Structures are given as structure tokens and as C-alpha cells.
Amino acid sequence: MNSKEFKSIFGSVAKENDFLQAFGGWYKESPECISVLELQKSNFGDYYILNIKIFIQGSFDRIYSPTKDLIKSPMGDINENETDKYREIFDFDKPLDDSLRIEKLKELFKNHIVPFTTQTSTRLGIIELETSGQISILSSVKKELDKLMK
């Protein structure tokens, strides 16, 4: 499988996990946040970087919708990537059996992407992740989040 074929398979697995496709990425909306998945192609090799971006509704006086600018935005209010454990599935410079790559991709969604985007679908969930040290929040985003929680 090449990287283009992988992107299509990634989209299928994202759809199986209730993500919608738009503008070359995938997103899931909740009343409080939008989660965006974007595969960023590297300029340094045949691999992708998975960008997971969370946009908090109302932060910085903005209401977000799944537009091209949002999907392609370099950063969200909260940002995450694939974990080290799953990085190899995005690297096409290193051989990996196609069936193993797909199996690990499904495992990545089950063990990391879905739990993370579910937890960050609410402001309270984001605060809980930050309080437990699982994520870091920029101070400006933390101030906005605190303001929204009042």
C-alpha cells in the first residue's frame, strides 16, 4: 500500500468511528467542541503526521464550523498527535505489512483517537485531562476555558 491508498483507508476507518470528511480532513462535532483529524504529508520523507486539533466553541469569541480554514488550520485550541506506539503506521519509508498497518490503524482509533476526542468533546473533559497532566493547555486557551466555565 502506498501513502495515497493509506489516506483512503484512514478515511474509511475515521468514518467507521463517526468522523465526517471535509476539505481533506475529518471532523466530529459536539455542542462544546469540534475535533479535527488531519494527515499532514511530510516534506522530508514518505510519511504522514497525524494532527488532532480540538476547537472549543466560544473560545476567543468564535463559533467554529467545519470550514476549509478550520480543517487546514495549523493548530487548534488543544493539539495532539499519534502516539509513539502507532507512529510506524504513518511511515511508508519503512516496510510494514498492509494488514498489520490497517490493524494498528484501527487499534489507534480504538485506544487513542476515539477516547481522546470523546474526552475533549466537552470543556469539563478538557479541564480533567489538563488537571491530570495528560495534556498541556496554552495559558491563553486556559484563560478562555476558565472564562467559558463561569
TrEMBL record:
<dbReference type="InterPro" id="IPR025412">
    <property type="entry name" value="DUF4304"/>
</dbReference>
<dbReference type="Pfam" id="PF14137">
    <property type="entry name" value="DUF4304"/>
</dbReference>
<protein>
    <recommendedName>
        <fullName>DUF4304 domain-containing protein</fullName>
    </recommendedName>
</protein>
